[in-house]
Specification:
- This protein is mainly α and 208 residues long.
- The protein has helices at residues 14-34, 41-48, 52-58, 62-81, 92-103, 107-111, 114-125, 130-153, 163-184, 188-202.
- The protein has ten helices and no strands.
- It starts with 13 loop residues before the first helix and ends in a 6-residue tail after the last helix.
- The chain is elongated and about 65 Å long.
């Protein structure tokens, strides 16, 4: 499976790795709040507490930094979907817990999906980032696909359930609901989108 992970320079010291991580975190927060076009090097340097030479050493171009932020945000999304309480996302109960965890969060109202918001901004403006965006979504959807495949193999989903199509549905419902949450300033759209998607997944439940 393709990933968005970027491997830092192996010659970096522990201090250098920490600096790189600090830059990415600062850039991610600024970009989430203001967008790529409205975030500049001076803001990133100040937020990360680094010099101009440190920033350019780790990220010679803005494109390289945006790519690293995309990878970092994708890592965060994947990690959140692998929380212990969600297991392998391989049961109706786990999928419901996943949905409820986001519906109860104010993150979506504040600024939408951290990865999806950035992906939507750069995928048209910067075609060179398309592969990174696609790989991030693939990692995310693979978690759903794996869990749904296990459910079908255990006989919890009917044989005609398509794990790939259902994974697309869950991801799309999340992204669309998150955007509507952000626009409306409340969490009803995401709740309705996710519960509607889950109801469709559950319609493939095998009869017992």
């Amino acid at each position: 499976m393709t990933t968005t992970r970027q491997v830092p320079d192996r010659k970096l010291t522990a201090k250098g790795l920490a600096t790189r991580e600090r830059i990415i975190r600062a850039a991610a927060e600024l970009i989430y709040e203001h967008g790529v076009q409205n975030t500049n090097n001076e803001q990133i340097r100040e937020a990360a507490g680094v010099s101009g030479s440190q920033l350019t050493r780790h990220f010679p171009t803005k494109e390289s930094l945006v790519r690293a932020v995309l990878a970092w945000q994708a890592d965060g999304i994947v990690a959140r979907h692998q929380a212990p309480e969600l297991g392998e996302l391989d049961s109706f109960a786990a999928l419901r817990r996943w949905a409820d965890s986001y519906i109860a969060s104010q993150d979506m109202v504040r600024g939408g999906c951290t990865f999806g918001s950035l992906a939507a901004e750069v995928v048209k403006a910067e075609p060179s980032h398309r592969d990174t965006v696609a790989a991030g979504f693939e990692r995310w959807q693979a978690l759903f696909r794996r869990g749904l495949t296990k459910m079908r193999e255990r006989g919890e989903l009917r044989p005609d359930a398509d794990p790939t199509a259902l994974a697309h549905l869950l991801t799309a419902a999340f992204q669309g609901g998150a955007l509507l949450d952000q626009a409306a300033g409340e969490s009803a759209p995401l709740r309705d989108a996710l519960y509607g998607a889950l109801a469709y997944v559950e319609s493939f439940a095998a009869e017992r």
